[in-house]
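User: Show me sequence and structure for the first protein, then do the same for the second.

Assistant: Starting with the first protein.
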Amino acid sequence: MGALRFLRVLYVQVLIAIALGIAVGAIWPQLGVQLKPLGDGFIKLIKMAVAPVIFCTVAGGIARMSDMKAFGRLGARTLIYFEVVSTLALAVGLIVGRLVQPGRGFNVDPAGLDPTVAQGYAEKAAHGEGFVDYLLHLIPDTFFGALAEGQLLQVLVIAILTGFACARLGEFGDRVSGVLDDVAKVFFSIIHIVVKLAPVGAFGAMGFTIGKYGLEALVKLGALVATFYATSLIFVLVVLGIIAALAGFSILKFIAYIREELLIVLGTSSSESVLPQMMEKLQRLGAGKTTVGLVIPTGYSFNLDGTNIYMTLATLFLAQATNTPMTLTQELSLLAVAMLTSKGASGVTGAGFITLAATLAVVPDIPIASLALLVGVDRFMSECRALTNLVGNGVATLVVARWERDLDRDVLARELAHGPDAVRARPLAGAEAD
């Protein structure tokens, strides 16, 4: 009976599914590649509910705020935190790349690489938007268009506008915010149903990854992959660990609390696949609904710690592998460029690789054809990027909530002490007040 109860736990099921996916992809590669629709289908089911959850949570939260200046302060502090920590992540990747030099000894001749392999990514990067175009892209063409297309930042914009409008409407706005809360509960319930399919999605995604790229690709560039995973782990435990400690909680307990979400991300290589669950858990940890609703979605474009580490580390790897000399001034220029190009990445699988292509396009010393070296292992590093991004955004939410005095520290301590096992048996923090 104990074993059966253990197998009913979601994170155990996901772990087993990941192991089976690896085995199928390694033994029957063609079958593994054909499993891709399972992973894609699961992510699409989750993304189906992401936009409505963000809209209802943010709009309803702002509608209940009596002090609009407080919301402006929340947004400013969120962006300041994102910029500081993102810069730290870029710097860590740059420092490790200089010290470890994972590309040393490859001696790759760029002329011997197939330029068509990286051409598709380079073209996508070349079509990237300027700063003004990027700002205009934040404005959706229609109100429902952003919701239909799942554009998170556009959804955030219309949610903020809706929240402000409700706040101006007095009693009627209060009734609207109540309706939004009720609608959000429906979509969270949908998420709870869909997440039961996480083992199927993880099995399909992992089977595809191993079947398509093979373990040989992982072994061939193992030094880079190992360096990236180790650097990300150090960043989470040391940098984010210190930030978490200053905010009054343990990074290890927090990681244990979101272990189900981390395993789903490991299987699907997409942090967006657990966005609604993370929003719910952060509220259970005592963070205010408005803070959670603003920080998490914004962080998916502006606070991608794993992607930032990857960009500077991978760029130095390519320079070292192709024997392209880079001075300290050029490396600092790379850091400055990456601070801008990293803001274009999102939680979707593969976005980090396209952003890397955009960075190389701005730093012409490194041949763009060298991207072909990373194609085979990028999917393996995508998992680590997504995991680091998820932890980083979770920590950011709790820190900003503490900064804004919108964090119930007693609830946080109690929840982290109890762990996630009894989460569904306890109501959301502040639910009684709603």
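Switching to the second protein now.
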Amino acid sequence: MVEPRRAVAPLAETAPIARARDLSKVYGKGATEVRALDGVDVDLARGRFTAIMGPSGSGKSTLMHCMAGLDRPTSGSVVVDGEEISRMSERQLTTLRRTRLGFVFQAFNLIPTLTAQENITLPLDIARRPVDRDYLHTVVEAVGLTDRLSHKPGELSGGQQQRVACARALVAKPAVVFADEPTGNLDSTSSGEVLSFLRHSVETLGQSVVMVTHDPAAASYAHRVLFLADGRLVAELDDPTPDSVLEALAALRHPSGAGGRHAG
């Protein structure tokens, strides 16, 4: 299950790894306009595991994509590890994503002809950066793949493939790892393996992780859960459990006040 919490220095609370101010994202115009994000202000804590949740169409994936430099906001600012990325050129964003950010997606995105180790070190190889062998060993040991490094993806289970993808995201020592529904294609056992590793990477390696998920059980591995509705940050929850996340989601689906909602 979840390992002991709070193994990070108190300074982490005052130095967010990423933050957004008055962040908005609008798609379309006129009658077809959709406001995916509507003036979001948020700080994502350094050295913590943060989950982002919300109903379908709430803007959770859009928020992550804008904060990870995968999509450009319509207005507002995004700062990641001290760098304002919302005004970076495409070339600067590419360099940022390659050198300072890690990504884990629902699809494993492994190269089938490469071994697990070759997949893990691929981003460093592409960037022509040296592999820190000691850190590679630490990550591989943490993800539990020491005896699988010579195996190709087709010889690994789904959970093992996603752990390879997690190790690939971590081996370049990124400032933050963004994970978009990382357990969406996995069974409950494999999901637990991957989420435990992401939590472990925070607790023991000092990594910062931000994860979008629809699964209350997955969110319970995080230190903090942020809830979006209609493109706005509407609630947050510290030290979540599956039950407390379910209660918070239920409150979003049946709000006591009035208010419009986005479709989708």
